[in-house]
Amino acid sequence: MRARRVLDLVPLVLVLAASALAAALAAEPAGRLDPARAWSSPSASSILGCGEAGVDLLPLVASAELRAIALAVAVALLGFSIGTPLGAAAALVRGRLERGVDRACDLVQAFPSFILALAVLSAVRVPSRVHIGAVFALTAWAPFARLALAQTRVLRDAAFVEAAVALGRGRAGVLFGHVVPNLLGVVAVQLGSTAAAIVVSEAALAFVGLGPRDGVSLGGVLDQGVAAMLRAPHVLVVGAVAVFVTSGAMLVAGRAAAQR
Amino acid sequence: MNRSLRLLLGRAVEALLVVVGLASLVFFALRLLPGDPARLVLGDEASAGELARVRATLHLDEPLLAQYGRFLRGLFTLDLGDSFRRPGTAAMERVGAALLPTAELATVAVGLGATLGVGIAVLASGPWLPPGGRRWIDRALIAVAAAPLVAFAPVVTWALAARLRLVPLPGDPDAGAAGLLFAGALLALPLAAHVGRIARASLAEVARAPFLAVAGAKGARPLRVWVVHALPAVVGPIVTTVATQLGALLGGAVVLERMFERWGLGTLILEAYSTRDLPVLEGAVVAAGLLFVVAQALGTATLLVIDPRARSGRA
Fold first, then answer.
1. Is B147 in contact with A113 (Cβ distance < 8 A)?
2. Chain A within 8 Å of B266 (Cβ-Cβ)?
3. Of the candidates B315, B250, B141, the residue with the CA atom closest to the CA atom of residue A110
4. Angle, vertex CA A161, rays to CA A155 and CA A163, nearest 5
5. CB burial class (10 A; 0-12, 13-18, 19+) of residue B218?
6. pLDDT (tens digit, 9 = 90+) per residue, B67-81?
7. ipTM
8. Single pTM value for the model
9. Distance CA B286, CA B94 (A)
10. How far apart are CA A201 and CA B254, in angstroms?
């Protein structure tokens, strides 16, 4: 079982290692322009080819992947640490709060969060990664809260929880001392799919023109690829494969938490 | 009160709260986050006189609560003022014109996605395929459900429209129905995979139910057993899945509209964003929210009509 768990982490580690290596060994900083080589196909000097205004795709994609992974992990962990206690507390208190949180999770999960992100980001002149992360965090808590709520419904009647209550522990003590530690394994399963969804959403935002100001984003590469679909299809392929691989590696890594 | 009516009323109140909540979020985000909205509109070089004029037009010089009251009133009377970039055109008029193409695209996508997903699930549940084939379908459903639209839609478009020229580019004004169908099919793929997975799991649950055995024993063919007898029993989870995927579908519609330069709510939101046309932006986001809650309510109503268990509260 342990070997399988380690195996699930391999794709993410490979993506991280390859991106870090490519970014560290790059002869030039990500995003340097050289119009003479604009849209040139993959060659020995630039392995993935060049894009708009001659930007070398390899260092660009490598840094974009690293930043996307950092953002996704940060937001997923934030959602995890807000959603888990919230869902557990709602199920412990029962009644109206439980129903309210349950329904709120339903709504937030089904809500067009992409449009919400567009709307909120329009309040800043040029979105930074912190802004983008904050907008994703607005909805990232919901799947964790929903899982924690469902799991706490089972746990709240368990003998050890009743014993803790009988011994006089307060609600917060029961919540953080007894319920939350028993939820972590189940709720952590969601980390991978939430992080994968954030990688994709960040790319989609940058694709429609709301990327971070430095332009280093997988969505930006896809945008270039669509603009030059006929002239330089390699740009589109590089961008699409990068989004696939990064989000897929996140999904697979999430399974490592599932096998207990 | 009748349970169905109470449920629908509850959902309607909730829908109203969601739309007002979303609108308020946009309203306060634009006014309370650091940065002056008038400067966002005009840029850094604007003179004090110009800034004052914009503040007066957008009522930014009034107290926040008065602005909010005016905004809510405008929301309920569908009058958010004139488009800032096209004086003389009401913001809601532009939003209304953009709502139709997006609703069209989303409807085609939901129709195609639900049909395709249910079809695949029935095919994989009935006796037509060997076990190996079913396992492949299940794997393919998981893979497609996890595939990001923003990555595969451009590649598929490049292959089918640019290289093989099998389909027209949906942004092409001459593309017509074929273009709409192609864009709808791209948007429908992830939905079909989600619907397929849920329908497949639900059908597997009823597969051994006695009513299916009775239908078979009375001489019904497998297709009739699965489509006429089994499918209505699993409509609930299918409708719920479509409803939960609607948000993602609307987000996908924005991406596709941008990609194909097809006119719609997404292109309008992006245009209003880049030109900081605040009244249009607020209106368009609220319209997107409205589209979403109306579709959700339709889902609930459909479920109540089709499934008697939902009416009696047993589902």
1. no
2. yes
3. B250
4. 150
5. exposed
6. 899 888 888 888 888
7. 0.84
8. 0.86
9. 13
10. 12
Minimum CA–CA partner of B288 in chain A: A115
DSSP-derived 3-state class of residue B170: coil
Burial class of residue A82, CB neighbours in 10 A (0-12, 13-18, 19+): middle
Distance, in Å, from the CA atom of B5 to the CA atom of B124, rounded to the nearest integer, reads 37
Q: Does B150 touch chain A (CB under 8 A)?
A: yes
Report the distance separating Cα B22 and Cα B288, nearest Å.
10
B246 interfacial to chain A (CB closer than 8 Å): yes
Give the position of tokens 């107290």. Answer: B63
The Cα B211–Cα B214 span in angstroms is 5
Q: What is the distance of C-alpha A153 from the center of its chain?
A: 27
Structure tokens at A7: 């195996």
Looking up tokens 């405008």, which residue turns up?
A: B74
Look up tokens 């990068």; give the residue.
A242
- pLDDT, tens digit, 9 for 90 and up, residues B169-206: 777 777 778 888 999 999 999 999 999 999 999 999 89
Which of B155, B164, B239, B261 to substitute to test the interface with A, most A CBs within 10 Å? B155
| Residue from the list B148, B162, B281 with its beta carbon closest to the beta carbon of A200 | B148
Reading phi first (left if > 0) and then psi (alpha if -120 to 50, else beta), residue B261 is in left
Tell me the shortest Cα–Cα distance from A243 to chain B, in angstroms.
6
Residue A172: what are its φ and ψ, rounded to 5°?
-65, -40
B29 interface with A at CB cutoff 8 Å: yes
pLDDT one digit per residue (tens) for chain A, 260 residues: 678 788 888 999 999 999 999 888 877 777 778 888 888 888 878 788 888 887 888 889 999 999 999 999 999 999 999 999 999 999 998 888 898 898 888 878 777 778 788 878 877 777 888 889 998 998 899 999 999 999 998 888 889 999 998 999 988 999 999 999 988 888 888 898 899 999 999 999 999 888 887 888 999 999 998 888 888 889 999 999 999 999 999 988 888 876 55
Q: Which two tokens stand for residue A235?
A: 């740009």
- Are A115 and B296 inside 8 Å of each other by CB? no
Residue B95 token pair:
């939003």
C-alpha dist (Å) from residue B267 to B172, B259, B285: 15, 10, 12
Do the chains contact at B148 and A203, CB–CB below 8 Å? Answer: yes
Tokens of B219: 């001489």
Contact B281/A at CB under 8 A: yes
User: What is the distance in angstroms between the Cα of B119 and the nearest Cα belonging to chain A?
Assistant: 24
B147 contacts chain A (CB < 8 A) = yes
- Which residues in chain B are closer than 8 Å to A99, comparing Cβ atoms? none
CB contact (8 A) between residue B276 and residue A116: no
| A88: closest CA of chain B, how far (Å) | 23
